[in-house]
Task: structure prediction
Amino acid sequence: MQLLNIGYGNLISVDKILTVVSPDAAPIKRIITEARERGKLIDASCGRKTQSVIITDSDHVILSASSLKQISSRLNGEENIQDE
Result:
């Protein structure tokens, strides 16, 4: 099982990730609200601004303070970009 650093010491299994998206679009904001109501929202942003939203195969929605670019580079095995 490969783990992905999503910022501030938080890790997620790469196998569980369906998509990583920006939190700015209205449909994503609705997905976040619905996940919060269902108890499927995980806030891994540690109180910082949410810069990316990870949707998993278990229908969980994870908020991350790491940018899409940072998460993408980590998924591709590239050198970590400074984020904290």
Summary: Residues 45 and 64 are 5 Å apart (CA to CA). The helical segments are 26-38, 68-75. The mean pLDDT is 92. The two ends are 25 Å apart (CA to CA).
